[in-house]
Amino acid sequence: MRRGALIAHYTTSLPGIGVDPRNGAALLRLDAIKARVGRDGYVVVTGSVELARGWFAASDEAESLIATPWPGPVTIVLPAGTAAAPAVVSAAGTIALRIDRHPAVIALTGALGRPMISTSLNLPGEPPARMIEGLDDGLTAALDGAFVLGPRGEGVASTLISLLDGELRVLRSGSVETSTLLGLLGQLGLFGGRQ
Predict the structure, then answer these.
(1) d(CA 157, CA 73)
(2) What is the pTM of this model?
(3) Which of 14, 57, 68, 132 is deepest in the core (most CB within 10 A)?
(4) What would the mean pLDDT of 166-172 be, rounded to a whole number?
(5) Distance CA 98, CA 118 (A)
(6) 193 close to 53: Cβ distance less than 8 angstroms
(7) Could you tell me which of 23, 56, 49, 55 has the C-alpha nearest to residue 105?
(8) DSSP secondary-structure letter at 157?
(9) Distance CA 64, CA 80 (A)
(10) Contacts of 137 (CB under 8 A, 6+ apart)
(11) What are the C-alpha distances in Å from 147 to residues 140, 164, 193?
(12) Average pLDDT over residues 91-103
């Protein structure tokens, strides 16, 4: 990945294409595969809270959300920190980040030493793949390999929430239902379990 490889890998939700967010050549290839014009910022994942530090603007609320032991994959949109790679920062200055405890994510980001981009494993206009095996030939040809470690994920997109200007919002329902998410936040004393 440091040399620019695009790697298929599993996460706790859907499989993704893993890319080093600091490798410009890899980013250009990824943009071409995903037919992206401009950059809204790719989702980044990491297997540990420690590797995420500096990639999001620190606050008590942000730290609490990042460290929350969610019962499934939850991606959080936060103000970007100074360590975030420019490729993953949106025009609004935010980053979409997930602490993902899948063994493949833990191993890859641990070896890379930072969060990695993990975007859906599919070509534009195609549904996201639910497993790495049996991919479309065109997608397989565009990738440099696969890192198959651990089980397949849930096969459901992560829940997407945002914490901007101190306000928590659920942007997309996913693996963790809104009622479960809000109940857990209430138990932890965060946001009063409200959105």
Answers:
(1) 8
(2) 0.90
(3) 14
(4) 87
(5) 10
(6) no
(7) 49
(8) P
(9) 16
(10) none
(11) 13, 34, 37
(12) 95
Domains annotated for the chain, with CATH where assigned, are: 7-193 (3.90.870.10)
Give residue 39's pLDDT band: very low, low, confident or very high (50, 70, 90): low
Q: Please name the amino acid found at residue 52.
A: A
Cβ contact 76:66 at 8 Å: yes
Q: Contact 186/193 with Cβ under 8 angstroms?
A: yes
63-81 pLDDT tens trace:
888 988 889 999 999 999 9
- The mean of the pLDDT values for the chain is 90
- Tokens read off for 51: 């590797």
CA distance 195 to 193: 7
Question: In angstroms, what CA-CA distances link 184 with 111, 137, 176?
Answer: 32, 42, 11
**Which DSSP symbol is given to 60?**
H
Name the more confident of 99 and 60. Answer: 99
